[in-house]
Fold this sequence. Notes:
Elements: H1 2-7, H2 14-18, E1 25-31, E2 34-42, E3 60-68, H3 70-73, H4 77-92, E4 98-103, H5 110-116, E5 120-128, E6 133-141, H6 142-149
Amino acid sequence: xxxxxxxxxxxxxxxxxxxxxxxxxxxxxxxxxxxxxxxxxxxxxxxxxxxxxxxxxxxxxxxxxxxxxxxxxxxxxxxxxxxxxxxxxxxxxxxxxxxxxxxxxxxxxxxxxxxxxxxxxxxxxxxxxxxxxxxxxxxxxxxxxxxxxx
Length: 150
């Protein structure tokens, strides 16, 4: 999994990549000079053209990177960081309809964070390891986000 992350095109020129779409962004959270966490939202995914008879795919952004240092997780700062990124994405691009995130039981603080923010399980992607951990994709629709923010 780490190899996939490190080879993705967003890491070749971070600043240029995350400036291509208004809903995209990479945010670093620091407390003084101490790194707390980061989140990256990639909205360069385009709404796919539907083939004849298929529904049009909604314009979707993806949370590519999301990490909070262990010392800060008990304060649930990850919830604030996620809320900031999601609010920013939906407010900057009114055509953005959905945000997706990958979750894993191997990163235990993320699943409760996504659930608290209203993300729902879309589908399981694969199982990994000898204990067969289930990885998945979660999503948050604009409509649900709008109801929650009002």
